[in-house]
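User: Could you walk me through two proteins back to back? I'd like the raw sequence and the structure tokens for each, with a short line separating them so I can tell where one ends and the next begins.

Assistant: Of course. Protein one, sequence then structure:
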Amino acid sequence: MITSLILTDMQIRFLALCLNLEPKWTRASGWMALQSQLVENPRQAKMSQSKRPMSPYMLGSYYKFQITSLLSILNRLTGIFLSLVTAPILLYWLVTLATGEQSFMAFSECLGGVLGKLVMAVSVFCFSFHLFCGIRHLIWDAGWMMEMPQVRMSGWLAVIASFVLTAIVLGAGL
């Protein structure tokens, strides 16, 4: 344990509150008393003896890859893409549609280029992935499919369904 740490009264009280310890010390003897109570806490003593990592963010040999964490990160990234890229494009599309045929045709030519088609394809995938992950979360909110094998299966189904829906939409030329 760290013995050279200097804590204020407020920090000692907060630490004691978090660890469910009785605040039986003064500021001068606070850290030493807290240290002795930590050793007496059997849960804390057991955790300090184990050799496992303390954080799931330690990548490498300590942390096993999980589809659920990848899908969570990808769901957030698709939501950001939909908010920052797709929504403004759709709003601009509506504005050009309302202003007249000439501005609409100019915007359609921009979307008809390679970059425009790529942005539209990514937008369709992001929308479909976000949609199926949202449905997956609604199913969880109902209390269904909460066991880990079912969670993994629903994750893979969301990915597969996203690619299928993207292929259907892009194949239809929408």
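----
Protein two, same layout:
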Amino acid sequence: MEELTGLDARFLYSETPTAHMHTIKVTVIDVSARTTQLTPERMIEHLAESLERMPILRRRVVPLPFGLGNPGLIDDAHVDVSQHLRHVRAESPGGIRELAEVIAEVTARPLPRDRPLWELTVVDGLEGGQIGFVMKVHHALADGLASVSLLVGGIGIMNILLVSVTERTREIGVRMAVGAKRLHILMQFLIEAVTLSLFGGVIGVIVGIVGARLTTVIAGWPTIISFDAIMTAFVFSLAVGLFFGLYPANKAARLNPIEALRYE
């Protein structure tokens, strides 16, 4: 059994009857060129095969006795795929509004804790003969790595700025000597932190767009680049830059001008 990290367990502890801690992934696929029908039986077969390649979807959360520590994850070798698969039919005409209603219904239901924390809903009846897939995964399984990645990236920015403050100590002293106030120094390093973080966000967005286009060209799978997702990425980049840049910026702003000028 593997114990959940504090980051992952936090999502389990934060869940309430009205605030569910799961994430939703939606894909709409054109199956008009498919020669065989995608029946529930075939979907169960496909999912069973996928579980062999994605062990995280076999893991079930188990609380420790008497709550002595974070819950653990055990590999469930006998996952009943049929318990994780749902088929629904969207209301006519099967457009974006009808799909959104299905997604809202799926999102409103919590994931049962007695099985691996994921669920796949297949949505039929969409316009153009398309099929929608709504994947629901608990944040405890999906977000630990992402949280660690954000933390590592933020610490990297903070370390870069701390080194920059050390190397530019005399420069900071000169600026203070000619009239720069602490607020000016603080804003200078905060702007540098945000710029660095946003630059990383731009690179990430470009890689994501190129990867999506390559997937469309090579595999023939249609992909949609969401403007909301791009803006969310930039907001997170801005927040990471501000949060992790505050300490080095504050350190620079609090330098004593005389000691900074003497720094070798």
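The longest strand covers residues 22-30.

Let me know if you want the two compared in more detail.
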